[in-house]
Amino acid sequence: MNVECTRLPSGLTVVTETMPHLESVALGTWIKSGSRNETEAEHGIAHLLEHMAFKGTNQRTARQIAEQIENVGGELNAATSTETTSYYARVLKDTVPLAVDILADILTDSVFDEDELEREKHVILQEIGAADDTPDDVVFDRFSERAFQDQTIGRSILGTPETVQSFSSDQIRAYLSRNYTTDRMFVVAAGAVDHDAFVKQVEQRFASLPTKPSATPVMDTARYTGGEARVERDLMDTQVLLGFEGKAYHMRDFYCSQILANILGGGMSSRLFQEVREIRGLCYSVYAFHWGFSDTGIFGIHAATGGENLPELVPVIIDELRKASEHIDQQEIDRSRAQIRAQLLMGQESPAARAGQIARQMMLYGRTIPNQEMMERLAGITTERLTDLAGRLFFDTAPTLSAIGPVDHLVPLDDIREALSTPPSGIRQAVG
């Protein structure tokens, strides 16, 4: 990797990876702050700020921001997650200074005009409505709410109609000054970029960023609770999500959990896809995933199926969890490692994917992680470690169940709890 990192006197970190065979550059600013850094009264403000950053500065109107980046064939966008926010662009190499200038402008000199704010609130209210009309979104939002009850980490990123409508420009500025500081921000570029020139551009244009927060940033320690959310709706199918507390990024079992999720439901050769979909035909979609956060995680299995298959679906999934706690083949580990290696290498062919990966590693670990080091970590994962982890994940922690659609025939949560507290040999009898 041709990665260079410079920490400016202000505390802002600048990282580049030069990919000389390209003609374009993916660049952006990543902030170690997201919806989890909101107070109770700020629910949804991180996402609203992301929208408002594009709505005008003291130097550019909202239209000028859009036109200037598109006049040179570039793209500009942003995203808010639970623990991070990003503002990023993709441009040709000779227009990098313009992209840096625009990104710095929206992050240091936005005006948060009241008329624009009211219009953007209306846009987000439509976004909230659209999410509520999308079963895939609803099942995940309700899952998070039950997995982390009454906590910021369990709340939807979009906020509620009531909170969004209540926000003022001053509240947005307060959140901004508390979280968008140089010690929490990383400017990253990948592609046809010259590190020294890029650092100079960033240092000049981002000089006005505050180095210290106006108040102590907010983020409570996560507390996984588990629980259940069933939403009865007249739909053609039912979305079901069964999950458990996963592992934080820095925990020893994080990469082991990634491998386990891949083996269980990471592709067409995975156990759940083969057993639940291909052999039994109990659903049209099934996969497993593991999400890591700074102090906790989520291990989940998502399935979409017709209501007539619900009585059998969850018992079969639990049976596969039991089997994973009893035996895993070395061949399955090798296949999963090969898939992860391929994803890493394919990601390096995309400057946008590479910039995002670098930013995440810097925020989580304070450095970039070479692919070789990543593969060495994965090489230490054994069948014994995986079966031990499966036993602890699935049978030692409280389950969380979320479902939307015709849910009448879905197995009761108490039956699932009983099955998961039963020695592995008795699981099918407990829920069958």
UniProtKB/TrEMBL annotation:
Membrane-spanning ranges: none
Gene3D superfamilies according to UniProt: Metalloenzyme, LuxS/M16 peptidase-like
Ranges for domain Peptidase M16 C-terminal: 166-339
Keywords: Hydrolase, Metalloprotease, Protease
Coiled coil: none
Segments forming domain Peptidase M16 N-terminal: 14-160
Pfam families assigned: Peptidase_M16, Peptidase_M16_C
Keyword Cell division: no
Keyword hit for Protease: yes
Cofactor section: Zn(2+)
Source domain of life: Bacteria
Family: Belongs to the peptidase M16 family.
Record protein name field: Zn-dependent peptidase
Organism, scientific name: Peteryoungia aggregata LMG 23059
